[in-house]
Design brief:
Elements (H helix, E strand, L loop, with lengths): L15 E3 L4 E3 L9 E2 L3 E3 L3 E2 L4 E6 L9 E5 L12 E8 L4 E10 L8 E7 L8 E7 L7 E12 L1 E9 L8
Antiparallel strand pairs: 1-2, 2-3, 4-8, 5-8, 6-7, 8-13, 9-12, 10-11, 10-13
């Protein structure tokens, strides 16, 4: 099974979905999943406690119903453990086998320049698995990011996207 997530992180978190429509978060005024496949559940999408000014915003490109925005991202060269966007999925019967995560993101002109993607099977209590990172260009355009995964036989998985190296703390 391939995981596919659409999320415009940090700045704007767009509709989010995991492969073959396992779970979808529209982020159009709600952080709750808008769709879950049979035998799958999804958590509320949330920002970490270090992210400020969390708000829904309109996406004016006509392709997406909305986005979720936050600021106060780390300006230094390393991630802050409290500054992230998170979603979790669970198999209510059976297990999850995930091979890819894909999401859309957009930053403001002063927002985070680096994204780091991690996952955990215990809600980040004891483990924290690195998926990948990306350096963002100095533009405010929407971009699609994709990372391969090798996650097998899990029942609960949480994904976090950390933003750091922001040009200014108020950047989104």
């Amino acid at each position: 099974m391939q995981a596919k997530t659409k999320l415009a992180l940090l700045l704007w978190v767009l509709p989010l979905s995991l492969s073959a429509q396992l779970v979808q978060w529209n982020l159009n005024g709600s952080t709750l999943p808008s769709f879950t496949a049979p035998d799958i559940s999804g958590s509320e999408a949330l920002f970490g406690s270090g992210v400020g000014n969390q708000t829904f915003v309109s996406d004016n490109d006509g392709n997406n119903p909305g986005a979720y925005s936050g600021n106060s991202w780390e300006t230094g060269p390393a991630r802050n453990p409290d500054e992230y966007f998170q979603v979790c999925i669970s198999a209510t019967t059976g297990t999850l086998d995930l091979t890819n995560i894909t999401f859309e993101e957009r930053r403001s002109g002063t927002g985070p320049r680096t994204l780091e993607i991690r996952y955990s099977n215990d809600n980040f209590t004891n483990d924290d698995n690195f998926i990948g990172s990306v350096t963002l260009p100095d533009t405010t355009l929407w971009r699609t990011q994709s990372f391969p995964l090798t996650i097998s036989n899990e029942t609960d998985i949480c994904f976090r996207i950390y933003g750091y190296n922001a040009e200014a703390p108020q950047g989104t």
